[in-house]
Inverse folding.
């Protein structure tokens, strides 16, 4: 992740690279983790696919 300041403002943007070579479910899991982090929730470090399962391929929500 990289923090970038928008010129002439007090706004900071966090650059969060996504590995688009991963399967879609892993990309969605990374985006879900980022969304939880952006709302201030603590997200434990885990492999992207550790909670993925049928019916919830992105691993979003309770395990």
């Amino acid at each position: 992740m990289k923090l970038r300041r928008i010129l002439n403002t007090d706004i900071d943007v966090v650059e969060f690279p996504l590995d688009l070579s991963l399967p879609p479910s892993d990309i969605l899991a990374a985006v879900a983790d980022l969304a939880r982090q952006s709302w201030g929730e603590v997200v434990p470090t885990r492999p992207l696919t550790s909670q993925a399962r049928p019916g919830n391929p992105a691993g979003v929500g309770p395990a």
Remarks:
- The first strand starts at residue 2 and ends at 5.
- The mean pLDDT is 76.
